Amino acid sequence: MVRTLPFSNLYSHPDKPLEEHLIGTAEIALRNLNSSPVHKIADFRKEALKKVLLVSGLCHDLGKATSYFQTYLLGSKKEKKELRQKPETRHGLLSAVSAYYAANCQLANEVEDGEERAFLSFLAFLIVRRHHGNLGHAVGEIFISSKNAKLLAKQVESIEEKKLVALNAHLQNAGLIQAISKPLLAEWVASVKDDLKEHRPGLRRLGKAKNLIYYLTANFLFSLLIDADKSEVVLGEYMSRKELDFDASVIDKYKTILNFKPTKINNIREKAYQEVIKQPIDLGNRVLSINLPTGLGKTLTSFAFAFNLRESIRQKRNFCPRIIYALPFLSVIDQNADEIEKVLTCNGLKTDTNLLLKHHHLAEVYYREDGNEFEPSQAKILIEGWNSEIIITTFVQLFHTLISGRNKSLRKFHRLSGSIIILDEVQSIPSKYWLLIKNIFQLVTQELNSYLVFVTATEPLIFERQEVQ
What we know:
Blueprint: E1 11-13, E2 16-17, H1 18-34, E3 40-41, E4 44-45, H2 46-59, H3 67-74, H4 77-83, H5 92-106, H6 114-129, H7 146-158, H8 161-173, H9 182-197, H10 200-209, H11 212-234, H12 249-258, H13 264-277, E5 287-291, H14 298-317, E6 323-327, H15 333-346, E7 356-359, E8 368-369, E9 372-373, H16 376-384, E10 390-394, H17 395-402, H18 407-410, E11 420-424, H19 434-447, E12 451-456
Parallel strand pairs: 5-12, 6-10, 6-11, 7-10, 11-12
Antiparallel strand pairs: 1-2, 3-4, 8-9
C-alpha cells in the first residue's frame, strides 16, 4: 500500500496546494538547469548551483504559510482588498530568510570553502527575496530594518505549527535537507539581521573588483527560478523541447526550389554562400564573424552557417543549441522570419511556435505546438520565456536580457546558455557600448557555453581581430 504524505492545508494560489507549487517550481528549474550545457560558472560547480536552485525553488513561497497570507488568499473580494496592502501579507522576505539558512545546510557537504558557501547562500536569499520584483544592488539587500525584523517575527508567530510540519514533510521528501519548524524559523528571523551584515565587506570587494562573473551567476539562477515559478503557475508543467535534426542542406533544398537564375549578382551570392558554409568549424572558437556586403543574402547564409554549427555541436558535444537571431530594426524581423519559415516548411518541418518564434514588443501573443493553440496567458509565458528552437528578436530584447535587472527581461536569461547568438547588422550598435558588449559576451560564451556570430558588412572592433574566427 502506497502511503501519501498528509496535505498541509496551505495554498500558494487559489486551488493550488503550497507544497505542490514549491516542489513543481523546483523541479522545473532543475530540469532547465540540467538541460543546460553549463558545467560550472567560475568556481561554482554545477552540483552546487543545483543545490542552491533546489532550495530556492522549495522555499521561494514558504512565506505564504503565514495565517496572514492564507486569510488574504482565501478571503472574499472585500477582504482581499482590505488585506492586500498590509505588510503582514507579504511573503518574499520570510521566504528568503528560509532559503538563506536552508541553502547553507544544503551546501555543507558540497562546498567546503566557507566564503563560497556563504556567498551561494546569500544568492539563494537574494533571488528568492526579489522573485516577484526586479534585481537591484546586492549590497542593499543585506540591510533588514528593525521594522522588518519585527514584522518577520510577527509572521512566524502566525504560522500554524501543524500545517508547517506537514509542509516540511513534503519539502524534505523532495530533497530539502534542512527541516523547517516554527521554533527554527523564529531563531532565523531573530538572527538574520546580524548574519547578513557579515556579507557586506565581501560584496563591496566584489563591487570594487567590477567582476561580472557574480552578476552572471546571480542573473542565471534568478532567471531559472522566476521562469520556473511563472511556468508552474500558468502551465503547470515543464515544456519539453522540440529538437529536430537539420543542417544547411535545408537551405540548399529551398534554394533549389526557388531556382535562382544565373545572373551576375546571384552568382556572387552563391559564391559567398559556398565560402561561408564550407568553412571548417572549430568548436573551440566561441566568437565568429560573417562579413558580407548588403544584398548578398546575409539571412540565408548566416542561418545556413548557424544550422551547420548547431548540427556540429549536437554531434560532437551531445547538446542541441537554440539559435537566437537578433536584429536592430523591427522592419526586417517579419521579413526574415517569413523567409526562414519558408525554408523549414519546404523541408517538411511544421513551423509551430515551439520551432520558430518571433519576439518583439509588437509581436502577436500567439503560441502553437503540434497544431494546438495555447490560451493567451499561457502563450505569453511561453513567448516571453523564449520556449522555441529558433528565436528571431530585436537587439532591445536581447540586450535588455543581458544587461538588466528587470524581472520580465531576466526570465529568458538562462536560455542564452548553450545558444548560438547571431547579431545581424552589429555595426549599428553605438561605439560607446562596445566594451560593455565585449565583456558580457565574453562571459556568456565562456561560462554559459554559448557561441556568438557577428553578421555585418563592416565589422566593428568590438573584439580584437585575433579574438574572432
